[in-house]
Amino acid sequence: MDSTLIDDAVGQLDADQEERTARELVERKLRATRGLDQEKRIRRLAGMLARKGYSEGLALRVVRRALEEEGEDAELLEHHLPDL
User: Fold this and answer.
1) I want to staple 63 with a disulfide (CB 3.0 to 4.6 A). Which of 45, 55, 73, 80 is the partner?
2) pLDDT at 44 over 50
3) Whole-model pTM above 0.90?
4) Going by C-beta distance under 8 Å and a sequence separation of 6 or more, which residues neighbour residue 78?
């Protein structure tokens, strides 16, 4: 097997695991941010991930998805989070 192919596959697994772990962290903190205004929730959740070393793009993508699944208004999210 080509070592480049193996490296690419391992890199993809690592990226997938990183996103799953970030999502789990956000899900644990999501409840604690309910009742806060939208912008504050985004800053707190994305900031928590940033402090743990996650990239801004990944952090915002994970926060956006979590808030959308929670039922936050998509238009409000668009205002606060850039498209990634």
Assistant:
1) 45
2) yes
3) no
4) none
